């Protein structure tokens, strides 16, 4: 195999079906393969390569094969890859005998029945692969076929032109493949005239099963074709690989910057592990996660693979000059699944291990060099910390892998890739499923396989497509995951000798030093160490008293290292900023102050000149970008930042100035300053089970069919019980499922999370990668933000469900979610679907609370949401400055809605501030609501009504009824839960938490 032959084959596989297949199928007289695909084959020069098929000299090959225009060796791999990819991603079909008129007379052939042939433009429907929800696009029948083909060809030929290909100049096959993979699904508006831009990335591969896109199919076909070509025997394997450890690496943090650094560095390590596979086989070889559009991958395409920079000019990561740039998002998980040549699986895994460890070692050496320079040491004459760094990084990260070859499945009919022998696969599966050799297990023991495995022809002539090895992807994947789990369990540990005092952050390794004798010094006696010098000269790298080991040092300096790397990548300075906890606490009050004119109190303007500006939430700066008082708003929190907390007089004066200035917005002498802020930590539930195809987020074979096909299938299956059973069987895991999940998580974390937190609320995303989110918010924004994130994760905003998509699409700048899909700024994105759930831990703390303790409590809150809440839940912790804490854990839905309603009730002008206090007093003497719900409801209704008047008083009985019902559901813990619920609501209802009632209408107008 030559180097070019691999990329030629993969490129041929990528264009074997046209992108617009769903729009021209059953409409184009030339057939879907005779349009854009054939034109691109000629444009790329495939018909000029050696071994081109000539039908005059090879009668065994039909004219259909000739129309492909491919050399024999390439076509053989592409055809097989196409068969396998289609079988892996699509259900098998009941076939029927039909009559075909030929020159020699009428013949009976097996073909897809008429009821299963879909003219998709007449009824364009997309199906969510995790829920079965149908997304009806209306009607596309008016779209002109020739216009579609011309736009598609112009798009791909334009990419070729951008690569510099002219006339008969030789192709750079790898660059072309990479450009088509990355930008094929991105149809520029200038080429599209606004007609297909939103739909282009989601066009289905099969109109009968519109639950996966044409790009998913082309990716998988290219992956299989590349593996077949790169293996001497034409065999492929599934490689599952993970790096770690994960939780401990991220959790060791003393600041939000440490948290971001741990998450982002792990994501970067994941990319460095994937890079050798991408360079050897192309990024489409990795099935999970989806790499298309990931900023770090784009950088690699541009800077290492040589794609022209102008192709990336429209990418968001090329625009931002702050750490809001998507390059700063932790976008990749710590594991991947790839299709690789079977004979090279072990070598690839070892190359990955070596590459990721060498990359981290290089970062470690750079960290030591920078630390020494800042501390005033000569790096070339100070070997000790370099030796420590290398020793502590030895064997890190841990890399575990497993490879399962598809050759365990033998095909007795090599030409058709059918008549499967699964004996080898069963033997390999037996030890991992705890069954006797040869006994059916896993996917091979499901009703679906029992139907597909038998060559059955019923009385009415019905049969199925004969299965090929691609159908058994679920069994191969399941085996790979089990072998990987066994490899992790059997890992060996290499013990390292550590001397003296340990690292301040992890407590596991010795800290980096220039003199090993210093390791014996206890904390109080370290006066002139590497770290005391760094703390004195570069406080951002080390706090006073901190002494860090190798990994902790890399994490601490990673923000600096990566900011420099990002600045070089986009050719502009990228500034890292963190919104301080105090600034976040004041965000809503600053927003109101700016909205009402931004007038400063007498004497404030002079003081502001001496205050350093601070970073403000993005929504605030964008909303008031033209307000001349915005500069003052950036300096106001700086008054407090500049006042030392141990000098009461200066702090008191600064607070007084700030109170007077913010009070001008409310026509008050002084405003009461908000001193609390909030953090939330969100995590998807059962993600491992979802990837493995758990029942709750799996749909049946029948649900994946186009509605027209469902109707025909039902009529047909009514006469055949086995077909009926097949249709009702849950679809097993597939490459399409993995690509759909990864794509949804990418869009959620990279696009939706930042929009919700930073554009619809006054928050700040600390990190967002996949299903993990950490954000900081003003207290007033906490509840609506966490609720909207939960809805967006599933793609189901209640206020959008009754609306028509046509109307929602007109609102480009607001997030809309319906039926498992999201719409934002002209993009239609698939989310995780209504059956996928997420849990959130939230914490409200005083801005001066130690951040290490805050983060510890936040992680505990998230764990409570999953354990006590039973997942799909939230847990709120309030840490009071005066001492003590409040805890509230509940499921999403009614509890959160009631919490919001109760807060509004308590904030009503007619409600006494002592309403909750009095309710809690008599609550202590009552039995649990579970045992006396009527008593609770009656007394609670009386007490709330007694402490309110007017409109609020009328709503008290309804609030009491809902509170009692929820508390009664908690069993014997109901009284404690109710007390916490009331206390949390009272805390959140205080005026400084949000917008004063008297200004509500003004705020609505301003928004």
UniProtKB/TrEMBL annotation:
Alphabetical list of Pfam families matching this protein: Cas10-Cmr2_palm2 (PF22335), Cmr2_N (PF12469)
GO biological process per UniProt: defense response to virus
Entries under InterPro entries matching the protein: Cas10-Cmr2_palm2 (IPR054767), Cmr2_N (IPR038242), CRISPR-assoc_Cmr2_N (IPR024615), CRISPR-assoc_prot_Cmr2 (IPR013407), GGDEF_dom (IPR000160), Rev_trsase/Diguanyl_cyclase (IPR043128)
Keyword Nucleotide-binding annotated: yes
Keyword tags: Antiviral defense, Nucleotide-binding
Molecular-function GO terms, alphabetical: nucleotide binding
Domain GGDEF: 675-879
Highest rank taxon of the organism: Bacteria
UniProt-listed PROSITE patterns: GGDEF
Name of the featured protein: CRISPR-associated Cmr2 family protein
């Amino acid at each position: 195999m030559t180097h070019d032959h691999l990329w030629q084959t993969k490129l041929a596989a990528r264009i074997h079906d046209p992108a617009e297949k769903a729009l021209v199928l059953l409409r184009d007289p030339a057939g879907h393969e005779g349009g854009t695909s054939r034109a691109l084959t000629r444009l790329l020069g495939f018909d000029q390569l050696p071994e081109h098929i000539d039908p005059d000299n090879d009668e065994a090959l039909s004219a259909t094969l000739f129309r492909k225009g491919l050399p024999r060796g390439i076509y053989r791999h592409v055809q097989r890859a196409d068969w396998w990819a289609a079988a892996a991603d699509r259900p098998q079909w009941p076939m029927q005998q039909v009559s075909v008129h030929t020159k020699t007379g009428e013949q009976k052939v097996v073909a897809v029945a008429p009821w299963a042939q879909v003219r998709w433009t007449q009824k364009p429907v997309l199906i969510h692969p995790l829920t079965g929800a149908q997304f009806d696009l209306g009607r596309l029948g008016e779209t002109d076929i020739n216009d579609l083909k011309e736009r598609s060809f112009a798009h791909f030929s334009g990419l070729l032109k951008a690569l510099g290909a002219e006339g008969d100049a030789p192709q750079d096959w790898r660059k072309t493949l990479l450009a088509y993979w990355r930008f094929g699904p991105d149809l520029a508006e200038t080429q599209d005239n606004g007609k297909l831009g939103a739909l282009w990335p989601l066009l289905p591969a099969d109109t009968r099963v519109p639950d996966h896109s044409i790009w998913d199919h082309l990716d998988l076909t290219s992956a299989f074709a590349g593996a077949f070509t790169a293996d001497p025997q034409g065999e492929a394997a599934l490689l599952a690989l993970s790096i770690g450890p994960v939780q401990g690496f991220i959790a060791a943090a003393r600041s939000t910057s440490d948290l971001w650094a741990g998450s982002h560095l792990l994501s970067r390590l994941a990319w460095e592990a994937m890079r050798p596979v991408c360079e050897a086989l192309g990024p489409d070889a990795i099935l999970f996660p989806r790499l298309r559009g990931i900023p770090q991958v784009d950088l690699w395409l541009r800077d290492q693979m040589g794609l022209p920079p102008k192709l990336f000019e429209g990418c968001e990561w090329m625009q931002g000059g702050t750490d809001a740039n998507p390059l700063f998002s932790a976008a990749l998980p710590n594991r991947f699944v790839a299709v690789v040549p079977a004979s090279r699986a072990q070598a690839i895994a070892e190359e990955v291990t070596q590459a990721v460890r060498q990359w981290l070692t290089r970062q470690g050496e750079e960290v030591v060099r920078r630390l020494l320079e800042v501390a005033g040491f000569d790096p070339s004459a100070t070997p000790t910390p370099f030796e420590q760094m290398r020793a502590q990084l030895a064997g890190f990260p841990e890399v575990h892998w497993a490879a399962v070859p598809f050759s365990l499945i033998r095909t007795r009919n090599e030409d058709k890739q059918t008549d499967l022998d699964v004996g080898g696969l069963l033997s390999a599966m037996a030890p991992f499923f705890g069954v006797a050799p040869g006994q059916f297990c896993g996917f091979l023991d499901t009703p679906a396989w029992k139907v597909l495995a038998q060559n059955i022809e019923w009385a009415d002539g019905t049969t199925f497509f004969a299965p090929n090895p691609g159908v058994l992807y679920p069994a191969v994947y399941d085996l790979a995951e089990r072998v990987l789990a066994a490899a992790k369990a059997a890992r060996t540990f290499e013990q390292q000798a550590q001397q003296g005092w340990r690292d301040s952050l992890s407590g596991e390794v010795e800290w980096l030093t220039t003199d090993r004798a210093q390791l014996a010094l206890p904390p109080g006696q370290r006066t002139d160490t590497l770290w005391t010098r760094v703390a004195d000269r570069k406080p951002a790298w080390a706090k006073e008293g901190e002494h860090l080991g190798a990994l902790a040092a890399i994490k601490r300096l990673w923000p600096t290292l990566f900011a420099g790397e990002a600045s070089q990548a986009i050719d502009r300075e990228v500034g890292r900023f963190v919104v301080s906890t105090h600034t976040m606490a004041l965000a809503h009050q600053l927003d109101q102050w700016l909205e009402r004119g931004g007038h400063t109190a007498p004497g404030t303007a002079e003081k502001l000149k001496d205050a350093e500006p601070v970073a403000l939430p993005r929504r605030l700066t964008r909303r008031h970008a033209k307000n001349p008082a915005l500069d003052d708003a950036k300096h106001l929190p700086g008054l407090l930042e500049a006042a030392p907390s141990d000098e009461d007089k200066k702090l008191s004066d600064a607070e007084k100035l700030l109170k007077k200035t913010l009070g001008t917005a409310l026509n008050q002498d002084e405003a009461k300053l908000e001193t609390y802020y909030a953090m939330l930590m969100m995590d998807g539930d059962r993600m491992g089970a979802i990837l493995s195809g758990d029942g709750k987020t799996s749909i049946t074979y029948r649900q994946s069919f186009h509605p027209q096909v469902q109707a025909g299938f039902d009529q047909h299956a009514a006469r055949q019980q086995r077909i009926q059973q097949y249709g009702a069987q849950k679809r097993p895991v597939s490459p399409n499922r993995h690509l759909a999940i990864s794509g949804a998580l990418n869009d959620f974390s990279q696009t939706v999370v930042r929009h919700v937190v930073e554009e619809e609320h006054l928050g700040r995303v600390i990190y967002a990668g996949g299903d993990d989110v950490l954000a900081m918010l003003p207290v007033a924004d906490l509840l609506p933000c966490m609720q909207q994130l939960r809805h967006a994760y599933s793609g189901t905003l209640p206020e959008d469900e009754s609306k028509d998509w046509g109307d929602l699409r007109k609102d480009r700048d607001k997030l809309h979610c319906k039926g498992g899909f999201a719409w934002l700024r002209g993009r239609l994105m698939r989310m995780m679907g209504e059956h996928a759930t997420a849990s959130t831990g939230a914490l409200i703390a005083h801005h001066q609370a130690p951040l290490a303790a805050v983060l510890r409590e936040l992680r505990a809150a998230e764990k409570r949401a999953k354990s006590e809440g039973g997942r799909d839940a939230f847990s709120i912790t309030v840490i009071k400055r005066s001492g003590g804490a409040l805890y509230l854990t509940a499921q999403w839905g009614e509890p959160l809605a009631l919490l919001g309603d109760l807060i509004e009730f308590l904030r009503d002008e007619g409600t006494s501030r002592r309403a909750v206090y009095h309710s809690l007093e008599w609550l202590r003497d009552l039995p649990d609501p579970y045992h006396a719900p009527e008593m609770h409801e009656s007394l609670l209704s009386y007490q709330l009504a007694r402490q309110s008047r007017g409109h609020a008083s009328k709503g008290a009985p309804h609030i009491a009824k809902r509170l009692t019902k929820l508390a009664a559901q908690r069993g014997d813990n109901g009284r404690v839960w109710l007390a916490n619920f009331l206390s949390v609501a009272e805390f959140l209802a205080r005026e400084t938490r949000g917008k004063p009632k008297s200004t509500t209408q003004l705020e609505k107008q301003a928004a």
